[in-house]
Design brief:
single chain
Amino acid sequence: MWNSNSVIAWLVARAGLDAEAIQPPTGGRAPGWNAGLVVARREELRTRKRKSQQQRRTAMLTRAG
């Protein structure tokens, strides 16, 4: 389940900021923060994979044409 912490962690990570460096205050908690980071990492890997596949297809079409 998403909460404000997971949404903010996801947003920060997808924006390219170093979300891993952000820690809750001493003695504080941020339930959901790690879940947001995990989802952001998965999406980043999928995005990179998709871009790589598109670049390969474009290169193949360019060589074939």
